Every structure is written in structure tokens, then in C-alpha cells.
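Your task
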Amino acid sequence: MENPTVQILFDYFPDLTAEQRDQFARLDALYRDWNAKINVISRKDIDNLYLHHVLHSLGIARVIRFRPETAVMDVGTGGGFPGIPLAILFPEVRFHLVDSIGKKIRVATEVARAIGLQNVSLVHRNVAEEKGQFDFVVSRAVMPMPELVRLVRKNIHHRQKNSLPNGVLALKGGDLSQELLPFKHCSESWDLSGYFKEDYFKGKKLAFVSL
């Protein structure tokens, strides 16, 4: 039986296939099990998995629908956010999940394997050492945008195939004006409260810098 809290995803994304619905529904038990062994989500927050972590990750999909064969790198993925929810939602997109902490990548790897994700690769690596090329880099509250852009500029290739130019998409909170100031001619931000009605999303934003 599906955990009732997964229904929030189905309400916002009603066109999910039966397989996608099953994959999302299985995340709750998997993350509870792994989180008891390796803490990747605050123990107080595990009951809010779908709202605070999965739906938050899918905020990126409210702004861009990645086209098939798009390549996306998730920097500082932790236990797999936003990469795993996005990989479920976009099965024809390739996701590369990177984290410098090995035990976190282990959790993300085991969760992806358990739900049968075929479109993800996961690696224990500092992003400074990552040499792959991607259309987009995504992240979730990992580091300030100028630092992130400096580290991943080398990883963005220039073949365009999506509605947004290639670049960095970062889930953030608070006032982003100073953080985006160096990119004032090539950046944009969206309030997630414009897409999701829950109070949690007040002040939550998605920032974009084209590279």
C-alpha cells in the first residue's frame, strides 16, 4: 500500500506512469531504512520526505521539462536529491550524481538500484575533479552560486537542445539578489510558491545561470 504522503506528488504530477508512481511510493520505506543506518536526512525531517525533499526536488521540473537525451549532473547530491526524483520523472534523461561523501553516495546508489533506475550514474568524487560534460548542473542548497558556477563551468557543453540555455539550476532559499549579482545578464529565478501551495515553499526559489 502506498504511503499516503506520496499522494502530494500524484496531485501535482497527475500524468505519471504506473511504474513512476510505484518508484516514488517506494522511496519512503527505502529512505527510512537507509536513514536509520546512514543519516542523510534529518531524523526529525524523515516524515516530511515527500514534501521537503522529493517535491522540492521536482520544483526544477516546474520550470523546465528536460528533453530526451539531455545530460544532467547533480552536484552534492547527498542521499540523491534532486537527482533521484528527477531521474524518476524524466526516464529518457541521463543523470550523473556526484558527492564528495562516500556514505551518502552509497545510500543514493542503493535507493536507485532498489527502484530500478536505469538512467543514473553515481560517483564518490569532488566536483572539481569531475571531467564529464553536461547540458545542465543541478544542486540543492550546496554552495553559493558564484562558487558553484566556478567549479562546474568546465562541465557545461554548448550544444543546446532545451527551452532554457545550458547552465546551472540551483534550489535555494531567501534573497538571491547578491548571489546572482555577478550573473545579472545571464540569470533568472523563480519562486516555488508560485507552483506549490504548501507553506513550506514560501521563500524557496529556483535560481538559474546560463553558461
User: Anything to note?
Assistant: Strands lie at 71-75, 94-99, 120-124, 136-140, 167-173, 187-191, 204-210. The chain has a mean pLDDT of 95. Residues 4-210 form a domain with the Rossmann fold fold (CATH 3.40.50.150). DSSP finds eight helices and seven strands in the chain.
